[in-house]
Every structure is written in C-alpha cells, then in structure tokens.
Amino acid sequence: MKVDVIKKYFQSWLDNDVEIVKQTFSENALYSECYGPEYHGLSQIVTWFENWNNKGQVLEWTIKRIFEQNQTLIVEWYFRCNYDGKIDGFDGVTIADFDKDMKILKLCEFQSKAEHYYPYES
To answer: SnoaL-like domain: from which residue to which, for each copy (predicted)?
Structure first.
C-alpha cells in the first residue's frame, strides 16, 4: 500500500495533479527538499507544488528501486525537469515515513549528480 502511495505521488508531479498531493500527505506533514527548503504542513506543501508547477514541468521521475521497512520507504530515483526554461536532471533518494492512515508524515529528499566519472580507469 505504501508503495502504491509513493508511486501515485511521483506520478502526480508528471501529471501536475495537486489533488493527489492533497490525498498523499498528512495534515501535519514535513517535507524537506534536497537543496534546503522545508515545508511544514499540508497547506505549505500544496502551495509549493502549485507555485513550482507554475514555473516548471517535470519531464521524468523514474523510480529505480524501493526499500520498505515498517512505516518507512526508501526510494532511489532519477528526476528531470524544465524549470524556468532550464532543463536539468539528477539522481536522488527519498525517505518517506507514513502514519497509521498510510499518509506521508515526513519526507526527506537527497540529491546526487546524475553524471558519473571514473578517475581511476584508463
């Protein structure tokens, strides 16, 4: 069930569907983005989602794998978007904690460069 919720949430960004976001997060949720901003409560999360989608478009958000332990999911992914006319992409990890109602209570994102290099290979 948690896996279905997180997949629907990722898809909500591709579809620009704020209604899914409203259904996904607990009223008291905490969302921490990979580059610093935090949103406290569902109303801030919804406002951020709507504001972001006014300037940007998610082009791809591919889930690579999901790990589940108790009320927590860890999701490895690749994200690509067009934001304010600039296309960018990166790898990332989400750690999502769920409440007893299967809504996200806390979500933290971490980012990694998608382009890798191999300094010790010939």
So the answer is: 7-104
